[in-house]
Amino acid sequence: MAAVEGIDPTGWLDDQLAAASPDLLRSMVKTFAEAVMSAEADQRCGAEYGTRSPERVNSRKGYRTRDWDTRAGTVELAIPKLRSGSYFPEWLLQHRRRAEQALVTVVATSYLLGVSTRRVEKLAEQLGVKSLSKSQVSEMATHLDAQVKAFRERPLDAGPYTFVAMDALTMKVRENGRIVNVHALIATGVNNDGHREVLGLDVASQEDGAGWLAFLRGLVARGLTGVSLVTSDAHTGLTAAVASALPGASWQRCRTHYLRNLLTKVPKSAQPGVATLVRTIFDQADAQTVREQFGKVADSLADKLPAAAEHLDAARDELLAFTVFPRELWKQLWSNNPQERLSKEIRRRTDVVGIFPNRAAIIRLVGAVLAEQTDEWAEGHRYIGPELLSRSRMHLLPNDDTATETKEIMATETMTA
């Protein structure tokens, strides 16, 4: 294969543009790279290709081909050979490493976005990269491990985290020759600056009190402090774990999930009416009227639907925990909908994988998604303003009927303690 020995960049580029070649960029990379190699080979020989000179110390001996993976795709280069000694451009090795890293980034990003292995392979082919196997895709994705590990183990030093939300996602994984369900435990919080932040991720065999307690203790060990309210669904053992690991924090049961649970106690024909009635509890102007409306709704259900009324009354405190905070924050506190949107985004990417080969693969993909989301939150608008955060740290003193004053837990006090 013959390489380009000389080049008129202006004329050649004009010809390429006039031809409107779809592989223009790849052709440009190939042409310029071969021109540079030809010039370097001429320097080694002491004379230009095809010319006689008393200064010549070596001569050409054909070419050897080498595939070069670049951002423009795989380019087949013709590398000059010398009759005496050898020639190989050092810059080609360096650029190859950078090009391979760029390829890894493309493939790993595709994996991160939930693209299947076959689709990743097709994407690589469209980029002009040849022979990308399934094992290569998996190996390339492992470069995310170090980043995910650093993200999961980073100190939680942006507190106090007044509000925390938690959720668990069930996923399938192969273990000991069987396909089993495991649970990805995820926590997010609002930091002292008012931005949301993913606090932690762990994978547990069971979504029980032991799993949640170990997860929360890990967060506390990394610096989780100042938690006043934890919002979540009624996960098994979560409330006990919160009480043990986060003393002083109250639990807000997600009203959306609770309503679904309540409606299982109601005949189907009555469900729309009951749902509307329960929603009126939350459509009030202040904490006092919310509690009054709660009593009215429970009383109205007692006659015709006693099981539903009993179910609702038993959940009173955990459903109304949000009322001690400013009215402007209620919509952000009384349900786990913001966390559910994050879980939905995770599901969109993990569903493509289906069954994970091991737990490390779950950590890799979900952890990378969460790290990416945290970066987006940090660059976006505040979730809660500083003034509202300050007001939200004002609580009525518990278990004291005579107490009318309030206590403010400020971040500065936490830092100086």
Would you spell out the secondary-structure blueprint of this structure?
Layout lengths: L8 H11 L4 H22 L14 E11 L2 E10 L7 H23 L4 H10 L7 H8 L2 H10 L9 E13 L2 E13 L5 E9 L4 H13 L7 E4 L5 H8 L4 E4 L1 H9 L7 H12 L4 H16 L3 H9 L1 H4 L10 H4 L3 H17 L1 E2 L2 H21 L6 H7 L1 E3 L9 E3 L2 H6 L1
Parallel strand pairs: 3-6, 3-8, 6-7
Antiparallel strand pairs: 1-2, 3-4, 4-5, 9-10
Please give a structural write-up.
The strands form 3 sheets. Strands 3, 4, 5, 6, 7 and 8 form a 6-stranded mixed beta sheet that branches. The C terminus is likely disordered. The radius of gyration is 31 Å and the shape is elongated. It is of the alpha/beta class and 417 residues long.
